[in-house]
Amino acid sequence: MKKVLITGITGQDGYYLARQLIEDGCEVHGFIQRPQIETRKDPLYDKCTLHVARLDNMPLICSLLSQTRFDECYHLAASSFVGEKLADGWHTIQNNISCTHHLMAALHQFQPSCRVYFAGSSEMFGRPQTAPQTEQTPFTPRSAYGISKLASYHIVRNYRDDFGMYCAVGILYNHESPRRPREFVTRKITAAAAEIKAGLRQTVEVGDLDAKRDWGFAPDYVKAMRAIIRLPEPSDYVVSTGVLHSVRDICQVAFSHLGLDWNNHVRVNPAYGRIETQVPLLGCSDKIHRETGWQPVTSFEMMIRLMVDADFERVSHMAS
Questions:
Q1: Could you tell me how far CA 230 lies from the centroid of its own chain?
Q2: How far are the Cα atoms of 194, 238, 252, 253 from residue 202, in angstroms, in the given order?
Q3: Choosing from 15, 16, 121, 176, which is the catalytic residue?
């Protein structure tokens, strides 16, 4: 039975990855910072072996990795609020870089043959000069998160290049699901639409209706991670839909799915907006498609409807 370690197992991607791996008969382990409420409520985590360990606790990480051998390690854990101001991003930069460094050093010392997947981000491109972006596009990050991800990427790449470890990287563009935290605009809108339909509120505020992103479905992207880590040789891969949608599109799909007119409920508040680049973050996934056959299968519209349905079910349970 294949043994797999997931950092960030209680996050959106960690959850869907663990579920897929368990369905395939893998023994799944995960690092968590503390016994969390969500791990007690969700039966999925009863099927996993959870280790209470912070990635910045090097002695504990080394102890755990010296005791259990893993075939694969998916490093998904990261502080991930992209909207954070750079001046306030000390913790994000410090945490993401040091945790990646500690994990890679411990794996190199105790399990150099373990295959490693690192979750990169389109935020590493930051302010690109061309679109769509490929694996050859220069990185110019402009947020604390993007900077920390890029530094972590270079750490991982050096373990691949200098020590011969199997370290693969997925440069993932925005990906959403019903498990997306509400501080992200997709989930903010779908949750608000459900609550408005249920009569719990009347409006929702967004920053910029014309802001555009390359949005995909998290379970599709998790399949891409698994395809990447199982290739004969490790490399870097852009994972995206290659299609742009606006915040306005999210509003239209989410509210119309519930029979509502979004114009009556959505308000623009510039305080929530971000500075948009002239060249959009838009990915080209030709390389991963060519080498693995992977491509996204869930449309943008279907993804938003699934999120709305999940939020409306949650609201209905709260009201009952």
A1: 19
A2: 11, 39, 16, 18
A3: 121
Task: Enumerate the β-bridge partners of residue 6.
Answer: 30, 74
The active-site residue, picked from 145, 159, 166, 237, is 145
CA distance 79 to 57: 16
Active site residue 272: no
Compute the distance between CA of residue 171 and CA of residue 20 in angstroms, rounded to an integer.
20
Angle at 162 between CA 128 and CA 8, to 5 degrees: 60
pLDDT in tens, 264-293: 999 999 888 777 778 999 999 999 999 999
Chain position carrying tokens 């972590």:
152
| Domains of the chain, first to last | 3-175+218-239 (3.40.50.720), 181-214+243-281+298-319 (3.90.25.10)
Backbone φ and ψ for 74, nearest 5 degrees, come out as -105, 110
Give yes or no: 145 in active site. Answer: yes
CA 101, 231, 7, 140 torsion-angle sign? positive
Name the catalytic one among 72, 122, 123, 240: 123
Residue that has been written with the tokens 């509003």 in this structure: 251
User: Which residue is associated with the tokens 């969500």?
Assistant: 38
Token pair for residue 186? 């997709």
What CA–CA distances, in Å, run from 56 to 49, 109, 213, 224? 20, 16, 32, 28
What pTM does this model have?
0.94
- What number of CA atoms fall less than 13 Å from residue 315's CA on the CB side? 19
Average pLDDT in the chain: 94
* Cα separation, 99 vs 155, whole angstroms: 11
Asked if 194 and 259 touch (Cβ cutoff 8 Å), the reply is no
Whether 221 is a known active-site residue: answer no
